[in-house]
Structure formats: C-alpha cells, structure tokens
C-alpha cells in the first residue's frame, strides 16, 4: 500500500510520536548523478531530497520527488530510486521499534516535507550522522523527530473520523513501557495498569501492534540496550540491570538471540563502524 501527502503545512513545535518509538543508526548526505540509481539499501530507507529531483519506483507505482519532498520505504518494500537530475539526498535507516495503531503505509511520500518541518530540515542539512554528530544521543533525537514528523504529516491528511482509532489502553501501557523498560514488568502488572485481564490486553495489543505486550517489552528493552551499549563507558552489567535483567548471563542470552551477537561483540562491531567516519 502506498500513500502520498500533498498539502504543505508548517508543523514546527507540534510534533508528537503518537505512541510510536523510532530508531536509526545512520543519516548521510549522498550525491547521485543524473540518470543514476541510488545503491539499494539493506533495510528501511527514509529520504529527503535536499537538491535536484528523483523518481521512486516500487511495485505500487512511480513517485516523482522534487527538492523538499521526503519518502519512507519499509524494509519489505522493493524499490529503486533514480536521479532525474544531479541529486543531493539525505538518507537514513529510519525504522519503527514499536508502532501503535498509526502504522504508516509503504512507500509513504510527503510532498513539501521541508516546508512542513523547516526546523527538522535545517538540522538534517547541517548535521548528518557523521563526525561530531555521530553519537547515540543525536541518532535517538533524529529518529524521534523524523518519526514524529512523518506520523504528524500522515494524520493531517485524514479527517478525524477517517483516522484509525488508537486503543487508549494499549497506548497507556506502551507509554509506561517506553518510559521505563527496565522496570519489573509482568503480564499481570501490565493488565492491572490497563484495567483488563491478561488475555484481553494481549488480544488488544495484537490487534493494535501485531505483537503481544511481552514481545513489545522485549523490543523496547533491546532498543534501550543498544543505545546504552554505544556508550563504551557503560559496563555490560550496568546495561543489563538498566533494561530489566537480573543477571548479565540472562541479558547476554536475550541480546544474542535478538541481534545474533553478544553485547560485547555488538559493541565492538558498532565502535569499529563508527571509527571509520572522519571526525
């Protein structure tokens, strides 16, 4: 399913994550000569045309992109981006860690993104994730800003009665989990918070997010763990405790099952990758 937002409107200062949690590890400026294609991305792709024009090609159709337009393509969506003229592009691996009832279509094109969100655009144009800006804090902040801008743009194209209704019980539990994933959360505690039975809460979570409450909690804990592990001064034991694990061994098993590498190995690989960027 594809969607396009056409009407430009400035929303600086009125962004909301709407229950979504986003992350990214790279945001780069890329130049693509006229007639050439952007090398295929491994995973999701968010893009903003800083200068020039391009055509985004997917099975759903072709979308022309001009200066100031943005698009989000999920990892599952095969695509090709071809420069119509010499192209300067901001490209990021933006992806939702947790998506609430407001799940964006793919591809999702926002016409006039720069006009809608000028402050976000200026930040992206000034400081991609490299050199002094290659830090977990910048990456987390960028992901939250871009995700909120996309969801806000999407919601504005719909009349209030056309918007998917957000399950307030699910939203309340999601907010609590996201604010403190290291708490001693159990299915029973989440159900009490929502004033529902365990089975009712699980059913509503699956309907809203496609996953159970405990699956969402695991995603949030791993997201928080990745952020903490990029700080080399944080011992793995402290990270384990901060994300709700009572032992380093239990945390390491869970982290390796989720990422395919133990925490220390993941940290080393991430540090090596970051070291390859000029300061």
UniProtKB/TrEMBL annotation:
Cross-referenced InterPro entries: AraC_XylS_family_regulators, Homeodomain-like_sf, HTH_AraC, HTH_AraC-typ_CS, RmlC-like_jellyroll, RmlC_Cupin_sf
Taxonomy, superkingdom: Bacteria
HTH araC/xylS-type domain mapped to chain residues: 171-269
Key words of the record: DNA-binding, Transcription, Transcription regulation
SMART domains for the chain: HTH_ARAC
GO molecular-function term, one example from the UniProt record: sequence-specific DNA binding
Name of the molecule in the record: Transcriptional regulator, AraC family
Organism: Pseudofrankia inefficax (strain DSM 45817 / CECT 9037 / DDB 130130 / EuI1c) (Frankia inefficax)
């Amino acid at each position: 399913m594809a969607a396009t937002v056409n009407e430009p409107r400035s929303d600086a200062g009125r962004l909301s994550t709407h229950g979504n949690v986003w992350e990214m590890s790279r945001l780069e400026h890329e130049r693509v000569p006229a007639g050439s294609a952007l090398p295929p991305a491994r995973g999701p792709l968010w893009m903003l045309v800083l200068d020039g024009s391009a055509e985004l090609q997917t099975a759903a159709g072709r979308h022309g992109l001009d200066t100031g337009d943005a698009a989000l393509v999920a990892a599952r969506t095969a695509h090709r981006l071809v420069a119509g003229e010499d192209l300067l592009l901001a490209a990021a691996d933006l992806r939702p860690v947790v998506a609430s009832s407001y799940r964006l279509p793919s591809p999702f094109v926002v016409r006039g993104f720069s006009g809608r969100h000028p402050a976000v655009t200026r930040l992206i144009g000034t400081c991609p994730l490299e050199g002094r800006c290659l830090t977990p804090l910048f990456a987390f902040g960028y992901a939250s800003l871009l995700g909120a801008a996309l969801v806000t743009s999407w919601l504005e194209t719909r009349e209030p009665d056309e918007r998917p209704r957000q399950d307030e019980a699910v939203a309340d539990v999601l907010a609590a989990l996201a604010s403190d994933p290291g708490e001693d959360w159990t299915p029973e505690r989440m159900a009490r918070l929502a004033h529902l039975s365990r089975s009712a809460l699980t059913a509503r979570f699956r309907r809203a997010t496609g996953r159970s409450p405990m699956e969402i909690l695991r995603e949030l804990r791993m997201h928080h763990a990745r952020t903490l592990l990029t700080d080399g001064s944080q011992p793995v034991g402290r990270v384990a405790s901060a994300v709700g694990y009572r032992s380093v061994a239990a945390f390491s098993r869970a982290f390796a099952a989720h990422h395919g590498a133990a925490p220390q190995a993941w940290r080393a690989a991430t540090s090596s990758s970051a070291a390859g960027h000029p300061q």
